[in-house]
Amino acid sequence: MTAPASAAAASSAPAAVPALETRRLSKAFRGLVAVNGVDFRLEPGARHALIGPNGAGKTTLVNLITGHLPAGGGSLFLHGADITRLPEHRRIKRGLARTFQINQLFRRLTVLENVLAAVAERTGAARDAWRPLAGHSALLDEAYAVLQAVELHPDALKAVHELPYGRQRVLEIAIALALRPRVLLLDEPAAGVPAAESRHVLDVVASLTGDIAVLIIEHDMRVVFRFARRVTVMMNGSILREGTPEEIAADAQVRAVYLGESGDGHAR
What are the residues facing 38 on neighbouring strands? Predict the structure, then answer.
């Protein structure tokens, strides 16, 4: 029987180009293999979590993806373009942004100035930093709009050090969004945030638009199950498993090496 034309067309349609892809990506430090030939794909619009015990290689993998560390082997592609040898700042220009487990904010500057610096860097206006802020009205408007999107605009003129820690973590996400990323890496965005403040952080993560592919590196499985549609588990520098959150939670090997057997949904 001949397949319907629509089915035949669907079967021959090319697969979507991944937003981010690693091929045999590797890194060793003085003979210690931290990332061991990792093949990983982040699809366009993904909501993907990367989990694993301490020492699994998660942070090293993210540092290789961003260019913070040079790869020891393998290749890295951003929307199909090989960026393996590009320096970190050029990867940012191509739409790859991240936040850090420990925030990297200018604590004595205002909230607005922190976001404005990111907008200025993206647009090239940072070269005109000698001009007064009044000469950058369009950039100020854009920075303020980013703050409105994450509900930080009431704090725009406060110094960063005056903010509660949870709002500082939201500011980190705002700075990343000001770079207009196509791929966003979030390194434990709610780490160290008191429970009373974490809801705002997680609401901002959940509200990110579908044109951004998001990879969240996280230990708290409550965050993973709220956020992720796919989960990758790392162990000893390699990919142990990948699947839906339900598949990962039900996997006996994952539970043994990472989730534990208590069944309470918390990482061990």
Answer: 25
165 vs 129: CA distance, rounded Å: 28
What is the side-by-side strand order in the sheet with 32-42?
A: 32-42, 20-29, 73-78, 81-82
Amino acid making up residue 108? R
Query: The tokens of 2 are what?
Result: 């001949």
Domain boundaries, the chain: 17-259
- The tokens for 91 are 């990867």
Summarised one tens digit per residue, pLDDT across range 169-223 is 999 999 999 999 999 999 989 888 888 888 899 999 999 999 999 999 988 888 8
Q: How does pLDDT run across 56-99, given as a tens digit for each residue? A: 999 999 999 999 999 999 999 999 999 999 999 999 999 999 98
The CA distance from 49 to 23, in Å, is: 19
How many CB atoms lie under 10 A from the CB of residue 135? 12
What DSSP line would sit under 64-84, residue for residue? HHHTSS--SEEEEEETTEE-T
Q: Is 234 helix (H, G, I), strand (E, B) or coil?
A: strand
CATH code that applies to domain 17-259: 3.40.50.300
Residue 97 to residue 115: CA distance in whole angstroms: 14
